[in-house]
Model the fold of this input.
Amino acid sequence: MLYLLDYSDCPKRAIGLTCDGTPPPTGKVFENANNVNIPDNGAAVTSDVVVTGVAGNAPAGLQVGVDIKHSWRGDLVVDLVAPDGSTYRMKNSSSNDSADNVITTYTVNASTEIANGTWKLKVQDIAAQDTGYIDSFKLVF
Done:
């Protein structure tokens, strides 16, 4: 399979760096770059990543990279859902946080979870008037 990569949003990626200029994380990376619309003041949506080929449990320092485009990030609640359904809250809503977007990496202690299986990024917009979408989600083991 051949992929055409467009680095216009972040030219530093073309030379092997992250957008902030740091080296990419080490470890096995699983990513979903399919957009998922987040309904305004609606039900939670998920973006799935299927992890395979990782022995044992997930690490205590599981890196969860999220790129969520949204016009009022304080509306959002963001959780990581493990393959067994366990939920890890990464971001609470905050009516005082009017900035755009959630583009960050969270560290989750998922050491009690089996690594292989379907992991989900679960996002819910809990207030009206602003919209957005999950742009991408990745796990680094």
User: Anything to note?
Assistant: Strands lie at 29-32, 36-38, 45-51, 62-70, 76-81, 87-91, 102-108, 117-125, 132-140. Residues 51 and 116 are 5 Å apart (CA to CA). DSSP finds no helices and nine strands in the chain.
